[in-house]
Design brief:
three-stranded antiparallel beta sheet, about 40% helix, alpha+beta, about 70 residues, 3 helices
């Protein structure tokens, strides 16, 4: 089952990649290290720093990433 994505706001990496400890299913089924490699290469959005150790991603950017990936597959 695909987890519900909020309409607006921000997502943390554990919400995007999932977290078994928190019983959160992934929105994008990819491991965290692969996510960070994609961010570094520019394939995935860079996100926004909220603090020195807190990075979040706009829901709109994640939705666009999913839509772009869906169109690439077609």
């Amino acid at each position: 089952m695909q987890p519900a994505i909020p309409g607006t706001g921000f997502l943390r990496i554990w919400q995007i990649c999932g977290d078994k400890k928190r019983d959160v299913a992934p929105i994008i089924p990819i491991c965290r290290s692969a996510w960070w490699k994609g961010v570094a290469s520019g394939r995935f959005p860079a996100g926004v720093l909220l603090g020195p150790r807190t990075r979040v991603w706009r829901v709109e950017d994640i939705r666009a990433l999913i839509a772009n990936a869906s169109e690439t597959v077609r």
